[in-house]
Each structure stands twice: as C-alpha cells, then as structure tokens.
Design brief:
It is a single chain. By secondary structure, the protein is α+β, with helices and mostly antiparallel strands. The protein has one domain: 3-Layer(aba) Sandwich (Cytidine Deaminase, domain 2), CATH 3.40.140. Helices cover 30% and strands 26% of the residues. It is built from 5 helices and 10 strands; from the N terminus they run H-H-E-E-H-E-H-E-E-E-E-E-E-H-E. The longest helix has 17 residues.
Length: 186
C-alpha cells in the first residue's frame, strides 16, 4: 500500500486536462460505486484503450488489485515491454462510496496501478477517485464536482436530466472511434 506522500514523491506525470479525462471515462464506462476504470493514454493524452470492472468484495489487497488491473490491461492493449522507456500512460479512475480524501483502499489501488504499469511496460499515471462529492486526482489536489458517483447514467452523446429529458453532450475529445473499439466493460 502506498501512502499519499510516497505517491506524490513518485513523480507521477500530471494530466494536462484531468476534467476532460474524467468526463470522457465517465461517459464511456458509466462507473458506479466499486467500479474501477483503467485507461491507457498516448503521449498527447488521447485515450488509446480502457476497461472497467467491478471490485470484488474482499479484503483490501494491492496484490489482488494489481492482478485485476493487469488482466484488464492485457485484454485491451498489448504490452510495451520491448520499449526502452514507456510512451503510454495508464490512469485509474476508481468510483467508490465515502469522501474524496485518501483511504487505505486508495493506497492499495495506487500500489496495484504502479506495479501493473511496470509489468505491462507503461508509465504510471494519475489515480482518480470518483465519489458523491465529485472527482479528485490524489496526490495533486485537483478535482471537480461533476461528474460524481451519483451522476445520472449517460450514453455516449446523451445525458438524461433529472426531469427525464435527454440532453446532447459535447463530443469527448479523448480519442476517436478506434479508442472505443479498445474499450471493455466487465
């Protein structure tokens, strides 16, 4: 498990536009509490591949989280182990109950993400929590109120308002149709 100070000292690259990344992943995967979304970004921060899965109700264990993340990465994108230095970056969005501040579970996810990235030849990127309060990039202090874990379900391009009316959403700029073909939800 990683502590927030260890994560901050690890030199995790900052996202240029975290709101765009969070919104794009939320639109694609519609995470609910206990859902993890792992995404791979190219050097220009465009979405290359992503996968989402539900966390099993078990003890908080970084090894289990690492194995789950690695399995999802292997499903959606080939490894980059032959490269001298990683060019793609993996980020993790975890939707959970509770407040947005750091928990031991977050520390286990952070450790799992860092280790899975090493084993798949990727740079370790941001760890983002999504709670009722909104989203937060841990270790950076950046965040926002929307989307949040209580956001109404959306489809790509359409959001349902509280009164039941459908509203068109702006098209996400996180990648093209090719990226959607590399997305998976379990």
């Amino acid at each position: 498990m990683l502590q927030p100070a260890e994560w901050a000292a690890a030199g995790i690259p900052l996202l240029r536009n975290p709101r765009e990344v969070v919104t794009g992943l939320h639109i694609r995967h519609l995470p609910t509490p206990s859902t993890a979304v792992v995404a791979v970004l190219d050097p220009d921060e465009r979405l290359t591949a992503s996968a989402s899965f539900i966390r099993r109700a078990a003890a908080v264990d970084g090894w289990d989280f690492r194995n789950a993340l690695l399995a999802q990465l292997r499903r959606v994108i080939p490894h980059d182990l032959r490269r001298r230095t990683p060019i793609r970056t993996a980020v993790l969005l975890y939707c959970r109950e509770g407040e947005g501040r750091w928990t031991e579970e977050d520390g286990a996810w952070m450790w799992g993400l860092r280790d899975a990235c090493t084993l798949h030849g990727l740079r370790c990127g941001a760890y983002i929590t999504l709670t009722r309060d909104g989203w937060r990039v841990l270790g950076e202090g950046r965040g926002g109120r929307r989307p949040n874990s209580a956001s109404l379900p959306t489809e790509v391009g359409v959001a349902v308002e509280g009164d039941g009316d459908a509203k068109a959403l702006p098209r996400p700029r996180l990648g093209a149709r090719k990226a959607l073909s590399h997305s998976a939800a379990v």
